[in-house]
Amino acid sequence: MVVSGRGSNLRSLHEKASEHDYLIVGVVSNKPMAPALDYAVSCGLPTQLVDHHAYATRALFEDALAQAIDHMNPDVIALAGFLRVLGADFVRRYPGRLLNIHPSLLPSFPGLDTHRRALEAGVREHGATVHLVTEALDGGPIIAQAGLHITPTEDVATLAARVLALEHDLYPYVLQRWARGEVVRPLTHRPHNASPARTSGIN
Ligand code: GRF
Fold first, then answer.
1. What is the pLDDT of residues 53-87, one digit of tens each?
2. Which of 3, 148, 164, 171 to mutate to test the pocket of ligand 1 (most atoms within 8 A of CB)?
3. Which of 38, 64, 107, 152 stands the most exposed, by the fewest C-beta atoms within 10 Å?
4. For position 15, which CATH number holds?
5. Predicted local distance difference test score (pLDDT) of residue 184
């Protein structure tokens, strides 16, 4: 896994690994103080720190990141809260096996601050998406989504908490399906109106 921050998805993925038939082979962080890194260490997971501040260019940082990942020899690379935009050369190293989780129903609300933007836009449905990473920010092919109805009294905090709870089921579910060879791995962008696989109904 590749992380930068809080690590709640890492925790959920780790706690559910054995019952979902996948194994976390290691955790790479670009931030030395990331709580995710502390959690990984406390669990005895192999960890590597690749601090982007230590590299003069993005290309050098991404080379080091790739080396750290390749050293762990994963089948699939799961980003969760990784706060660096990855360049084309990096993404092309891992065609069809670089995943990210994003807190919105993509293609709606790519980028940051998704919950506030969803509330301001007045949408009635919101949720989380696992997608393949491509050069397009939050624009890669969608693998699975989980959604919810926004309630009339919802605020950013309640919505963020509800979406995060969805994420904690969605990512393990996707990796379980991946481990079973059940994930279709599209290698090109799907049109935005293609219907994604939903892993739970809107509720
Ligand atoms: C999650 O909301 C994820 O969708 C987004 O960043 C957040 C990471 O949270 N990409 P955590 O570090 O897993 O708690």
1. 999 999 999 999 999 999 999 999 999 999 998 99
2. 164
3. 152
4. 3.40.50.170
5. 64
